[in-house]
Write a structure and sequence with these properties.
- Helix content is 51%, strand content 18%.
- By secondary structure, the protein is an alpha+beta fold.
- β3 and β4 form a beta hairpin.
- It has helices at residues 3-10, 22-59, 87-92, 130-134, 157-163, 197-200, 208-214, 233-252, 265-268, 270-307, 310-318, 323-359, 366-369, 380-399, 410-414, and strands at 63-67, 81-82, 98-110, 115-123, 136-139, 152-156, 170-177, 180-192, 203-207, 221-222, 224-228, 260-264.
- The strands form two sheets. Strands 1, 3, 4, 5, 6, 7, 8, 9, 11 and 12 form a ten-stranded mixed sheet that branches. A two-stranded antiparallel sheet has the order 2-10.
Length: 417
């Protein structure tokens, strides 16, 4: 064990002088507060990103494929897509990707007293209902494999309140298209509430078979193919590029004459991802400010330790200790203060995150944030990296201020009061 480490480990942080420990306590509290703010900021930002991403993909899809219409007067049959048309996309994607066909049809839901325009998303028996099912507040998800549920739909709480709809009620729905409209009486089988008002107000889930009948679409066809099952945002962008390249190759080689529109969620829902990017910027600013606060607190702590032990510095120099050994001693003592601050800050910060995750005690306005409580996502890798970065920066920053020790002459330091 080195002399510097031995001295630093056995010297008390709190001075024996009156009020000598107040500065150290304030320093530890300041560091702990900074760590709490940084941990909470990262966890809340990660929670927001995860929740909003999940909601957007739940309503839409990671990647959607459709057929480009060449003119406004093209018939519906010219823009239909079947599973056979998905072969180039399937070959370009990893095996974890899932494909499902959907039909989206504009419609007007009408009651005796009111009406509202919506988009009915027709889904098949292979559709993943996990997102809507987790946000279901009344009723149940229809089993579209049975003929009896052909005209059952799932609406949002926002729409049900706007039109005074109740579970089990039947409503007249007018489907628009081809210069005419068709009427179907649909039964409300379930009501969901995701707090995502932009989608909740306009999205109704119905049977793919029902919309195929209304729009006179063959059973094997739809208007949009949805792709999900990709692990992260980067894989979504890479997948879109691969699918687009595959379809362009089909055109260039003459195997296909149809032009497909491939759109990923980052483009179709760009407004929400841009909002998240803005929040990322705010978090970076917070992390920068809190890091500076931590480093300034450590520097002030170092000066407090030095000023309260000037006599000891003079004695150590008189006994032959080098400036480097004494500097190392005080740096280690300052790192001890950092260690207590990190320990306390991590304990409080992670504890607050678990409380919020379990109870959702801190609320939010869903109209403004699309969530009714502050979301948190505890990422242990981020927490470990944050602590390691703070420790590394602290060692670097403390090197320069500790040089003041070399300017203290032993003769004056021993008699310093």
């Amino acid at each position: 064990m080195s002399v510097s480490l031995f001295i630093a480990r056995h010297l008390p942080l709190r001075s024996s002088r009156s009020g000598g420990g107040t500065g150290i306590i304030v320093s530890i509290a300041g560091i702990a507060l900074s760590i709490v703010v940084m941990i909470v900021s990262i966890a809340v930002m990660s929670g927001f990103r995860s929740e909003i991403r999940q909601k957007v993909i739940g309503f839409d899809s990671q990647i959607s494929i459709g057929v480009k219409a060449s003119t406004a007067g093209d018939s519906l049959s010219s823009i239909l897509i079947s599973r056979n048309d998905l072969s180039p996309a399937i070959n370009a994607l990893p095996p974890t990707a899932t494909f499902t066909l959907t039909v989206r049809q504009p419609a007007i839901v009408k009651t005796p007293d009111n009406f509202s325009g919506s988009v009915i998303k027709g889904v098949g028996t292979d559709y993943d209902w996990s997102f809507i099912n987790s946000n279901l507040v009344e009723g149940a998800i229809p089993d579209y494999s049975a003929d009896s549920t052909l005209y059952h739909i799932v609406v949002s709480r926002a729409l049900s309140r706007a039109l005074s709809l109740e579970l089990g009620q039947k409503v007249d729905t007018y489907f628009l298209g081809s210069g005419a409209y068709r009427v179907r009486r649909l039964k409300i089988a379930g009501i969901y509430d995701t707090h995502f008002s932009e989608y909740d107000r306009n999205t109704i889930f119905g049977s793919l078979s029902m919309l195929q009948q209304v729009a006179e679409v063959p059973d094997s066809c739809a208007t949009i193919a949805e792709i999900n099952g990709l692990p992260d945002d980067e894989s979504i962008d890479r997948a879109e590029e691969a699918i687009t390249a595959a379809y362009l190759e089909e055109i260039y080689t003459g195997r296909s004459q149809r032009h497909y529109a491939v759109l990923n969620i980052h483009k179709s829902a760009a407004i929400f991802f841009n909002w998240l990017a803005l929040l990322d910027t705010n978090v970076k600013v917070i992390l920068t400010l809190m890091s500076l606060l931590t480093l300034l607190t450590l520097v002030s702590s170092l000066f407090i330790l030095i000023l309260r032990r000037v006599n000891m510095i003079g004695i150590l120099k008189a006994l032959g200790a080098s400036n480097r050994q004494i500097r190392t001693t005080f740096i280690i003592m300052t790192v001890r203060i950092l260690g207590w601050g990190l320990l306390l800050g991590n304990a409080v910060g992670i504890g607050l995150l678990y409380i919020q995750k379990a109870t959702g005690i801190v609320p939010l306005n869903p109209e403004a944030y699309y969530l009714d409580h502050v979301p948190v996502e505890i990422n242990w890798v981020s927490i470990i990296v944050l602590n390691a970065a703070v420790i590394a920066m602290s060692f670097i920053v403390l090197l320069l201020p500790s040089a003041i020790i070399s300017t203290i002459p032993p003769s004056r330091a021993i008699n310093y009061e």
